[in-house]
UniProtKB/TrEMBL annotation, chain A:
Signal peptide annotation: none
Keyword terms of this UniProt record: Kinase, Phosphoprotein, Transferase, Two-component regulatory system
Biological processes annotated in GO: chemotaxis
Function: Involved in the transmission of sensory signals from the chemoreceptors to the flagellar motors. CheA is autophosphorylated; it can transfer its phosphate group to either CheB or CheY.
Any single GO CC term annotated in Swiss-Prot or TrEMBL for this entry: cytoplasm
EC number from the UniProt entry: 2.7.13.3
Protein name: Chemotaxis protein CheA
Histidine kinase domain location: 148-399
Domain HPt: 1-101
Chain ranges of the CheW-like domain: 401-537
Highest taxon in the source lineage: Bacteria
SMART domains given in the database record: CheW, H-kinase_dim, HATPase_c, HPT
Modified residues (Phosphohistidine): 44
Automatic annotation (TrEMBL), chain B:
Protein species of origin: Sphingobium chungbukense
InterPro entries: CheW, CheW-like_dom_sf, CheW-lke_dom
Residue ranges constituting the CheW-like domain according to the UniProt record: 2-141
Pfam families to which the protein is assigned, alphabetical: CheW (PF01584)
UniProt-recorded name of the protein: Chemotaxis protein
Length: 789, 145
């Protein structure tokens, strides 16, 4: 009996969850028979089962709802909002009762009569309700709601976990067996049998890990109901669009994302989407659009929540921050738009003017971000003031597999999440300077000072003597300021299967979990924030203020801009404004070439001009700066990239000549500054085209002979072949147009390039006929070559 | 009276553990230390695909860690969803005891006081009745302290 009851409760709870969305969708489209039937069936099933299980309150509630729905089915009643609300009310009460039964607590003694009365009551109000309100939420789902659900069975989670463990054991046993087999002489028969076993085990592991996955639909089930209720409460109309519900993610991950997602949706309805009147006044459609979209991108799930509401008013956000004393008006004036937007994640700041029941209850975007980051996710905003806001959550596919770095310290190995590591340096790097004062270590990396700790010190280990340089990693936790951490070495980068460590170990606060790599030696996962806490690092947020103050001093003096210091092949040291440099990369030396007196380099299948004319190099790789003026690329090969320094925006001595604009003195060294204006002005006007690579344009692209015989022939001969004339792109003078029909002979003259006319008969039709017989390969090739002149 | 007890030697003292708490007894192999923990957490050890947190019970009681070369057996227990291995010096027997659980007698060493729940007599020898979960709790407290 107990088992039956338990089954009934969990089934009811699950159906309820799925059904809430259905009811809302049905309200939007009362003519939708399938949905009405589904809801009716639910109440009918509940009524039937609880009569059997002797649950009178369930029975009464579901009976009342069933009656009303039956009337609607018989078209004796319409599904107006009040009825839907009443039905939803009954569903809520059934959920509460189910919860109470499953916990074995007393059933809440609230008045069911009231709810049941609400069902029949609204007939009088019906006429009063304005027509427009009848469908506050329209729900559209991209993927098949109408399809029959796949057949499923119910399994206890513990069984699945047991299966997972079993498979993990199997994998380890297989690994051991494989080691043992390798030690012995190879017997092909044995090996192939083992191979088969391996494949089976791997397949099994894949299949089992899928049981952890759950469709994102589950995340979305509660949304339509919530949107409907909020919309009604706030008098807003919302078109809800749910997409990508069939994307799968880790069961635990779904649990972790529910809260942040709910909060964002609430915010969007409360603060984002305007009232219908306001929207009308703004020239928007009355119903606001709210779109939730999930998709998989690599090993991440991206959940996008976008609305077409008013967006975030950064001005007001800044005003609030200033009023709250978190920001000075001066520093606010220097903030970029993105930095201003970032204020939304500061605790206690909200653009809501007043606290409403829906959001702004002190649980702000700061909590949302903290929650998302705790599971290794990232949250980003795309604010379109007045037009809407898109919030993007990127969360890992599963909680348990994360990319991690394996570091060595004190003779032991530790893992650290890859996401927490900003950069890794060796302690003999020139850009790194480590100073010690009063026991505290300070690492200065490119003139930013970080607190520095050695992992061995924090964990109370011996630091073994080491011959090579130690590694210093800049570590940033989800909260708090980045710090530098010294370790013996960074060994490896791996996808790690993380499992929780026992509470005893977690209590240290410096570990976030553990992992069992293939070598069978358990390894601990470090918690960046915990390490900072354990080392009692100053976690001062006014680091930013200090930086701003520093910048302010600079601004009052000479305006400084960051610049890259590099060495030319000629040996001079020069500077180039950093903002112009798109990136620095190593280019294969053989990609450089020279043509028509100009040096070029072949990058990503494009020819890019080389700024300083170098084209032949010793060695395989050339360090090159990639510059861009917005439209054109330039490559600037250099002998060595030295470092990044601050240089005055105006050189100390102006000396315009060639591509130089002047000289500055930095650290007592005279450096020439490259003039980007002159650099780009000296470029050839036209993009470089490779010689001898005119295209063959085949006008008769529909013709079978052209397509199947001519095109392959030309391609084999090394020509670039384009089927059909380019629709609107200009034809290059080096291109050749080939055609066989006569109709094109005039048009082709307009193209301004050479034309080759092919004919099907071996003999020319007239002495004036300049065409070539189409199987006369020599003449054809000669014509193509000739046209290249 | 029909409860089974695991009789073992722990920090030089004869103890009895209810078998309902015990999952298995294994010989300890590699233990990866957990730096930053007190001596009572010997480290982590892999048992097939499971990772055990190995507790040096002797260190918990006497305050002195067991030297690595004297690490013998571990009693495996699943406590609050995590797997632990509790180090013992030796394991003797699993048996029923005729008289069942007896109240404590005599002046107990203060180090044992928080852990002993009673006495169990087997073949004329008294054994301290201890609880594995109790050691884990004590371990958590030891860290806080």
């Amino acid at each position: 009996m107990d088992e039956l009851l338990q089954e009934f409760i969990s089934e009811t709870q699950e159906t309820l969850e799925a059904l809430a969305g259905e009811v809302v969708a049905w309200e939007a489209d009362p003519a939708d028979r399938d949905r009405l039937d589904a809801i009716f069936r639910f109440f009918h099933t509940v009524k039937g089962s609880c009569g059997f299980l002797n649950l009178p309150r369930f029975e009464r509630l579901s009976h009342a709802a069933e009656d009303v729905l039956a009337e609607i089915r018989a078209d004796r009643r319409s599904a107006d909002p009040a009825t839907v609300s009443a039905v939803l009310g009954i569903m809520d009460r059934i959920a509460e009762l189910a919860e109470a039964v499953s916990l074995g607590t007393a059933l809440p003694h609230e008045n069911d009569d009231y709810l049941i009365a609400a069902l029949s009551e609204k007939e009088e109000d019906e006429a009063v309700l304005p027509e427009a309100e009848s469908a506050p939420v329209a729900v559209a789902r991209q993927q098949g709601n109408g399809q029959a659900a796949p057949r499923t069975i119910r399994l206890p989670l513990s069984l699945i976990d047991q299966l997972m463990n079993g498979v993990s054991d199997m994998v380890l046993a297989r690994n051991e067996l494989s080691r043992k087999l390798r030690e012995r002489t190879g017997d092909p028969e044995l090996e192939s049998a083992f191979e088969r076993l391996s494949t089976c085990v791997a397949d099994m592991r894949d299949a089992i890990s899928k049981t952890r996955m759950q469709r994102v639909d589950r995340l979305f089930t509660a949304i339509p109901r919530m949107v409907r209720d909020l919309g009604r409460e706030l008098g807003k109309r919302i078109d809800l669009l749910l997409e990508g519900g069939d994307v799968e993610m880790d069961r635990e991950m779904v649990e972790m994302v529910v809260d942040p997602l709910t909060h964002i949706v609430r915010n969007s309805i409360d603060h984002g989407i305007e009232t219908p009147e306001k929207r009308r006044a703004l020239g928007k459609s009355e119903a606001g659009r709210l779109k939730l979209e999930a998709r998989q991108s690599g090993n991440q799930i991206v959940i996008e929540i976008s609305d077409d509401g008013q967006g975030i008013d950064t001005g007001r956000l800044v005003g609030k921050a200033i009023a709250a004393g978190r920001l000075t008006p001066e520093s606010a004036a220097r903030m970029s738009e993105a930095e201003k937007l970032d204020l939304i994640f500061h605790p206690g700041l909200s653009t809501a003017d007043q606290v409403t029941a829906i959001s702004g209850r002190g649980v702000g975007m700061d909590v949302v971000r903290a929650n998302v980051e705790r599971i290794g996710g990232v949250i980003s905003l795309d604010n379109r003031p007045g037009r809407g806001l898109t919030i993007m959550l990127r969360v890992p596919l599963t909680l348990t597999i994360i990319p991690g770095l394996i570091v060595r310290a004190g003779g032991l190995h530790f893992a650290i999440p890859r996401a927490a590591v900003v950069e890794i340096l060796h302690d003999n790097n020139e850009t790194l300077h480590i100073a010690e004062v009063g026991g505290a270590k300070i690492a200065t990396i490119r003139s930013i000072r970080h607190s520095m700790i050695d992992l061995e010190d924090v964990l109370g280990m011996e630091k073994p003597a080491q011959t090579g340089p130690r590694a210093v990693m800049v570590v940033r936790s989800a909260t708090g300021v980045p710090f530098a951490m010294g370790v013996s070495a960074v060994d490896n980068h791996e996808e790690l299967v993380i499992r929780p460590a026992s509470p005893l170990v977690m209590a240290t606060g410096v570990y976030a979990g553990m992992t069992l790599p293939d070598n069978g030696k358990p390894m601990l996962l470090l918690d960046a924030a915990g390490l900072a806490n354990a080392a009692r690092l100053p976690n001062i947020l006014d680091d930013r203020a200090a930086r701003e103050a520093e910048e302010a001093v600079d601004v009052q003096g000479v305006e400084m801009v960051p610049a890259l210091r590099f060495e030319e092949y000629s040996g001079e040291r020069r500077l180039l404004k950093l903002s112009l440099i798109e990136r620095v990369e190593d280019v294969d030396a053989h990609l450089f070439g020279r043509s028509g007196g100009r040096a070029y380099v072949r990058l990503d299948d494009r020819l890019v001009p080389v700024a300083n004319g170098h084209h032949s190099f010793v060695g395989e790789k050339v360090a090159a700066l990639r510059l861009r003026d917005g439209t054109r690329d330039v490559c600037y090969p250099v002998a060595a990239v030295l470092d990044i320094v601050d240089m005055p925006a105006v050189p100390d001595m102006i000396a315009m000549h060639g591509t130089l604009s002047g000289v500055v003195v930095i650290d007592g060294e005279h450096l020439e500054v490259v003039n980007p204006f002159a650099l780009f002005a000296a470029l050839p006007d036209e993009p470089i085209r490779e010689k001898g690579r005119g295209r063959c344009l085949l006008a008769d692209s529909e013709d079978g002979w052209t397509r199947e015989i001519l095109a392959p022939l030309l391609r084999q001969a090394g020509h670039e072949v384009v089927l059909g004339l380019p629709a609107d792109a200009p034809v290059d003078p080096q291109d050749v147009v080939l055609f066989s029909g006569a109709d094109l002979s005039q048009a082709s003259e307009l193209l301004g390039c050479r034309v080759v006319h092919l004919r099907a008969s071996p003999r020319p039709s007239s002495p004036q006929d300049g065409s070539i017989y189409r199987y006369d390969q020599d003449a054809l090739m000669a014509a193509l070559a000739g046209s290249r002149g | 009276m029909n409860k089974l007890y695991l009789l073992a030697l722990l920090a030089g003292t004869r103890v009895a553990i209810e078998t309902s708490e015990v999952e298995a007894v294994v010989k300890l192999t590699d233990i990866s230390p957990v730096p930053g923990m007190g001596a009572h957490v010997a480290g982590l050890s892999a048992l097939r695909s499971r990772v055990l947190t190995v507790i040096d019970v002797a260190a918990l009681i006497r305050g002195e860690p067991t030297p690595p070369d004297r690490r013998g057996f571990a009693v495996i227990a699943d406590i609050a969803g995590h797997s632990y291995g509790l180090m013992v010096d030796a394991v003797y027997d699993i048996c029923q005891v005729s008289e069942g659980e007896l109240p404590l007698r005599g002046q107990l060493d203060p180090a044992w006081l928080p852990h002993a729940r009673g006495l169990v007599e087997h073949e004329g020898q008294p054994h301290l009745l201890v609880s594995l979960a109790g050691f884990i709790e004590a371990g958590a407290l030891a860290h806080v302290a």
